[in-house]
Structures are given as C-alpha cells and as structure tokens.
Amino acid sequence: MKPAPFRYHAPGAFDEALAMMGDLDNAKALAGGQSLMAMLNLRYAMPDHLVDLNGIEALRGISDGPDGIAIGAMTRQRVLERDSLLAMRAPIFAEALRHVGHLQTRNRGTIGGSLCHLDPAAELPVLAMLHDAVLRVRSAARGERSLDMAAFPAFYMTPSLEPDELLVGLSFMPWPEGTRHAFLEVARRHGDFAIVAVGCLVALDGKGAIDRAAIVLGGIGPAPIRLTAGEAMLRGERPGIELFRAVGAEAAGLEAMGDSAYSAGYRQHLAGVLVRRALQRACPSEAGVIS
Amino acid sequence: MNDGTMTGDQDGGAAQRFDVTMTVNGIERTASCEGRRNLVDFLRHDLHLTGSHVGCEHGVCGACTVLVDDHAVRGCLMLAVQAEGRRVETIEGLSPEDGPLSDLPRLFAEQYALQCGFCTPGILMTLREVIRDTPDAGETELREALSGNLCRCTGYQNIVDAALAALALMRDGGEGA
C-alpha cells in the first residue's frame, strides 16, 4: 500500500523542527524511517504532517566527554556498529547491532528512532537501559529536560515524550576497561525482532569476584526489564555455572507477555536459558562451555 | 527540491508536489512527485526504471534494495524527496546498456543463482555494497548480509556460491560487482 497524503517538511535546523512539532497538528517526526515508513505504507500511521529530521546535522555524532559517551539521536545504526570509540568503550554495541534488522535497514535506521519507537523486543532500548543512559529531550515551549532510560517508557511502544518534544540524544558512563559483556537473542529469522533478547555487563574486581553486573531483557515486558534481583545475586560472588544457573532461574520467574505466536511460558523459558548463556559467554573461563 | 508547491485547493486535500533531482546511475534526473512518493516508486513510475522491484512495501523482502550514496537501502522505506541531491544506483547501472554483463550478474546467470528473478535486483544491489565494502567477507558475512533479501525459489545456496565467486574474482583484481 501507499501512504495517505501528508505534508512533508524538511527543517535544516533543530530549532526549526521543534517549532514545527509545537505548531503543527498531528505531526510525526521522521527519523530513519525503518519502522515509521512501513507504518505509513500500511496506513497504521496517518499523520497530517511529516517532519523529516534527516537534514539536521547537529543531531548526528558520537563523542566522548565529561558526561561519558554522548550519541546524537539521528546517529545511524550502521555508524554505531562500526564506530571505533564504541568498539573500545562499549563493545556490546557492535555485538548487539548485528541483530538489529539488516544491513539495508541499519544504513538508514537511527538510535533515536529505535528508542522512540520503543518496540518491546528492540535491541537498542536494551542497550540504553543496560548502560543507565540519560536521555535529553527538548521542546520549543519548555526547553530541555533529561530523564533516565528507566523512566523513558510510558506504555507499550510509547515513550514519555510530549507531542511537541523531540529526543536530542543520550549519554552514558562507559563501564571500566576489561568489563565482560554478551548479547544474545532468539528470533525466528536473523534480523527479525527478538522473541527474547538479553544483554549483560559484568565487571570483576582485582580478586576475580563480581564487582558490578547489569542484566537487561527485551521481549519479556512492554519495555526492557532490568533483572535487579539477579544483579544483586552476582555482586561479590565469583563467576561460576551454578551461580549463573540460579540467576537464569530468577529471569525465568519474571512475569512475561504472551501472544498468539509465543506464549508467556515460552518467553520465560527463553529468558532463563538466555540469561544463563549470556553470563557464561561473558565469563567463559570461569563458567565453561555453553550448552 | 522546491518547497513543496501545492497544486489545487489546499483545504481540499490536494497533493503537495516536489521537483526532485538526483543522480541515477551517473546521470542527473529530475521528476515531479508527491511528498509521499517512495524512492522505488519514483524510480519505477517517474523515471521509468523498472528494474528495481516492489515486493512487500514494508521493508521485509528486500526486492526494492537500491544504493544511495553507496549504501544499500530499502527503496520502499525512503521517500523520493529524501534522495534529493543524492547518488542513486539501481540494477540498470550494474552493466552497460549495450555491453556484456558485469561480473556479478554474469556469475549469477552462470551459476543458476536465480530462478524467477524477482528478488535478484535487490540481491545484486545488496551484494554490490558488500563486495565493495568488505572484499574479504566470507560465507558467514555474506549470508548475514543476504538475510535482508528474501528469495523463495533458490534456497540461497547458488546465490551464496555466485557471490563467493564474485568476491574471489574481485580479490584477483576483477571488478567483482
């Protein structure tokens, strides 16, 4: 199908885009378009105005500063996948991005678009939550505010954004050098949204015990879920297969969504197996071969 | 691109039109289209380049894949107005109009890497980026890249074989794609 008619706007500056989002009725911001364009084609979305953010250079880029790593909302997924700063300071990005759609969609898709679309099984919201990212959003009327990724999802596929607000970007403090990581998911086909996705970061102290850990699951609830109980179980302990099995069991106990294709019970099963495997993959010398 | 001249009565929901100019296969082309016209429909209906195919129209099948500034993109998930001033490459640009096939389509024909041929233009354009960008790619990387293009005929094996042959040819100094 073809999109219903809309008025197309291509602001060259961010302030101009913000003014449009404030002034125009039923306006939708267009980022990489890898979800929105499909929704327009299928007429799931029928905005009166489309505000294209692709011409706004200021929203692109990855930088290292006092607030950690900052990523502009319109930075393309393909750029994140191949960025040398992220490869060094947050290598889980490259690993997870291989699961985000396909080469052809990553060439257009952006990190901000994925965060704002907020598909429950999307990989980039999992990464943002894993790193306790802080999101900057702005409107013409009220200026800028920051919020934690944990507070960003409002409902199913709905971020905490007012209709006149746009995402500027996100920032996070990278974990210490030597942090272990793994990103695993089960999807029906490579590049599909995950049924369940798991990302984990594990930092060891000087004596080989776990100093700090973060585990996030996608596809289980309406938004990514932090496995805080499992993280607490890991803290201060030495990595090992029995410990990881126990954390996996904790994940399998999470309340899960079910749908016609994949039941809640199946997702819980995947959550348990993937969390255990992800921790094993992050700590292979301590926890042995993955089974 | 102009500012979107409205033709007819605005309140009556008349179409917003743009004159869009882009370089397609090395030639500058201009045509007028609605703001909602996607890139692959622009190529097919407004520039009459019907080599790029339209399959699912929601970014899943990859039949509409074209290159924009050297990157493979879904032609159904990008508006024509967004390609204003860009370099677009389509299947028509892969081989000279009157000359022999270039390496990649020739290898596809020789190795029976197509049957009905509907997915082939998209697959060749995806491979064009992969071959240019990562000439040392192996079968795993090729299969990962091709996961974004659906073929319902071949079972992919001959496609992968032909692509591997093109990569080998490129490493030996051929054009590959």
Automatic annotation (TrEMBL), chain A:
It comes from the Bacteria. Residues 1-177 form the FAD-binding PCMH-type domain. It holds the Pfam family CO_deh_flav_C. The keyword Acetylation does not apply. Keywords: FAD, Flavoprotein, Oxidoreductase. One of its GO terms (molecular function) is FAD binding. Gene3D superfamilies: 3.30.465.10, CO dehydrogenase flavoprotein, C-terminal domain (3.30.390.50), Uridine Diphospho-n-acetylenolpyruvylglucosamine Reductase, domain 2 (3.30.43.10). SUPFAM superfamilies: CO dehydrogenase flavoprotein C-terminal domain-like, FAD-binding/transporter-associated domain-like. InterPro entries: CO_DH_flav_C, CO_DH_flav_C_dom_sf, Diverse_Substr_Oxidored, FAD-bd_PCMH, FAD-bd_PCMH-like_sf, FAD-bd_PCMH_sub1, FAD-bd_PCMH_sub2, Mopterin_DH_FAD-bd. This is FAD binding domain-containing protein.
